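A protein record in our archive is deliberately plain, so that people and models can read it alike. The tokens are whole numbers drawn from a learned vocabulary of local backbone shapes. For reference, a complete record is included directly beneath this paragraph.
>
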Amino acid sequence: MRDWFKQGTPWIWLNAGAVALSLVMVIGLVGHIAFNGLQHFWPRDLVAFEYSEPDRDPVQVLGEVDRTESLTGRAAAERGFRLETEDELVTRHRIKRGNRDVTDRDFVWYLEQHMGAWHYPEDAVRLERRQWGDFYGFLDEVRVDGEVVAEGEAAWDRFEELFAENRPRIQEIGRIERIEIGNVNAELEEVRLAQRRLAADETITQEARTEREAALQIQRDELEEQYAELEDRRNELLERIARYQVVLSTIEGHEVTHGMGDIVKPSRPNQMSVVDKSIFYVGEFWDFVSGYPREANTEGGILPAIFGTVLMTLIMAVFVTPFGVLAAIYLSEYAKQGPLVRMIRISVNNLAGVPSIVFGVFGLGFFVYLLGGAIDELFFAERLPAPTLGKGAVLWASLTLALLTLPVVIVSTEEGLSRIPGSIRHGSLALGATKAEMLWRTVLPLATPAMITGLILAVARAAGEVAPLMLVGVVKLAPQLPIDGNFPFIHVDRSFMHLGFHIYDVGFQSPNVEAGRPLVYATALILVMVIIVLNLTAVAIRNRLREKYRAESD
């Protein structure tokens, strides 16, 4: 036994067990997130039943079974359920009833012992709406210009035809509002700023001023004419869509009328086959990752959050890599080793342990208020008092996270430089190379994999940070993406959405937390996948460089 311990076999097994346990925990965590997030997009059947508690009138219920649990009779009584005895276990089901505009409650718990027989009506309809969440009920009539064109069994087929006909119009309205009108507004803003600059310019002659003012006014009139044309096109499409309406009824008998433009996606889950549900599932997931949020972020997609997260991380990598590498090169190769350098290294290591919110406060004070405010006064005076860079923006968020992750890059690069054999340095110098040539042409290429490793660790940490971003640029809802077709195309002065903050907002700040909970898991899964993709890309680059320089050294 003593020899067994001396050989180090127990420690090998201990390390292997720790790695295996960590791997199981990571896989379990990702599996738990994926299971709870991805099942949200599967179209579940709609169940209907009569619910009657003692001394209360029976009610008709239609909805999705969201959750089932068992509890004691005493606990059920404390939650307001009426029971004949509290000495037995009872089962309750949480039903997503939807129809928030009618009942004010999305989710309701029901005791199984008070439920009637479950049945699944084939004509039950689920409508995903632009407001008020999902609607569950039955389609009664389809109207065009106020006249009934289909009712009863024929209503659904007619409704699908009209919805397919109007869907391109709805998409066209979104494109006009989000892209075309946005572009015209951006050009109008540039003209307005040019007029303000012209009015403040005292060096220009009166004749040139008058000529320039006339040209700007002509440009402004043309843009306003374009804006009016776009508004007319949008209003015409809205009027055409408003001609079509559907009349629905809830299982309790409430009648609800919806315009075709209020409906995002209709379905009849109880009539769908597995293949139909699979196709619907893929479409729902794609809409989630490629769409825009609505209903206080509890509905719709997360494209702006994905885009903002990736853009911020890439800009952060552009800033942190050169500064971290140069700092490591100076500390390792040029700085005279002594108390000052040791103090700097200690400070760098301590900097890695500073809470991230402290970096957010520093970024807000230095980058946003001091640096951004000074830039506004120097270069964007015509925009004041509205700030351009003197507010939270993707640029300041990236710089703040670059400071946050800078110690990781410095330490990784220094370790990579220290692993380069001294013989390589001496050989390069012996052949007549200067110290700078030796570093840039021999040592740094061999240390590149270590630099990429530091970048990988920086990306992994920065992509998931939330606390500092809340102070330096991230917002609940960004009306515009940081990239569009207007010069300079990448707008680092804009606020942005972030997957981590989106998770926090939907999970803790949403007015309908229960409805948003599946989206929290789904968004967390997308965030994990984004980090994995970014890291795998960096790992692939690192491995390729490692093999390249290994082959050259051989």
